Protein: 3-keto-steroid reductase/17-beta-hydroxysteroid dehydrogenase 7
Amino acid sequence: MHKVVLVTGANSGIGLALCERLLSQNSQVQLCLACRNMQRAEAARSALLASHSDAQIELLRLDVGSLRSVLKAAEEIKQRYNRLDYLYLNAGIMPNPQVDFKALFKGLFSSNVIHMFATAEGLLTQQDRVNADGLQEVFATNLFGHFLLVRELEPVLCQPEHTTQLIWTSSSNARRSAFSLEDIQHHKGVEPYSSSKYASDLLSLALNRHHNSQGLFSSVICPGLVMTNLTYGILPSFFWTLIMPVMWLIRVFTNTFTLTPYNGAEALSWLFLQRPESLDPRAKYHSLTSGLGNNYTQPRKMDLDEDMSEALYEQLLQLESKVRKKMKEEEEDLRAHKEYLDQTE
Ligand SMILES: NC(=O)C1=CN([C@@H]2O[C@H](COP(=O)(O)OP(=O)(O)OC[C@H]3O[C@@H](n4cnc5c(N)ncnc54)[C@H](OP(=O)(O)O)[C@@H]3O)[C@@H](O)[C@H]2O)C=CC1
Ligand SMILES: CC(C)=CCC[C@@H](C)[C@H]1CC[C@H]2C3=C(CC[C@]12C)[C@@]1(C)CCC(=O)C[C@@H]1CC3
Structure:
């Protein structure tokens, strides 16, 4: 039977490279590109069909940063497919990033320099905002929209007769100290990206605890530092091009500088080939590229706490009930308003 694979944020960067790699690995795979912009989704499909003319590629409108869009997309998925084999939770944003150049310069002369380049610890902050659903945008996009999608799709994902893999694109920037159970949306801090990625690591662990017995397995990957629209938002693309020789040199010391979307998608495509039961729920699977340009995947233990992951899971369930209630009330208000308008006409 053909494997059904859904990828969020599939129209560019690592998501698009993953689709390309999956089709090269298995031309029979049934791909669904879940994107918020249908024009970009069409362009991605055309690019994939140019190299894989017989590929089965469907498009789905999904804005993971909008609760209504997630619910609508989940309904559509349930109508289209009676099973999903892989759900790649890849869409992500890093709005208004700011590099601390002073810290970067200081770090260059410290013993921590490799760690700094690999994780961006102490180098990067972002400016978040509240979205139309009243949630912090980075949290809503990188974590909560995906969580709601998984919750809505549980009947399709949790089928004991076959396994499904959830695969989160996390980051080496995910850091415990950026995350707080008292502020899971990161209202107060300046590292919403790091917080949201650490939250995805915790959530993946909790999803395994709750759903492995139902055939659902969750993993997290880190693609390394990759040149994509996300990184072009941090520094302009011409700057990255200028410093490319320096980056190749740094790659000799830290294999996390994968640089191309193809290399960054290594761990995502490696996981496609693994038996989910054999994976370690406490490991992050890193895409790595050696100084000579060879790609490989390496699991590294994550700094996770079982109680913390359960507490986050509980909070997400509570937030889910709250937003569902709010959406229901809004729909009822709208219906009442329409009825009133009909009567007064
Ligand atoms: N590049 C890097 O160095 C690293 C990236 N990552 C992670 O990799 C993932 C992919 O990012 P990358 O390929 O680098 O960057 P890109 O910006 O190229 O890709 C991000 C993708 O997510 C989509 N997306 C963003 N917001 C939404 C939304 N609300 N609903 C649906 N889709 C959305 C984008 O769509 P659109 O084109 O419409 O904006 C795009 O397709 C992200 O989760 C990122 O955090 C992790 C570590 C390092
Ligand atoms: C000489 C040189 C390489 C300069 C660039 C300095 C910084 C802009 C980068 C150093 C480490 C990078 C990094 C990321 C962004 C750019 C850096 C801070 C990420 C945060 C991008 C998104 C991620 O998810 C993880 C990356 C870690 C490393």
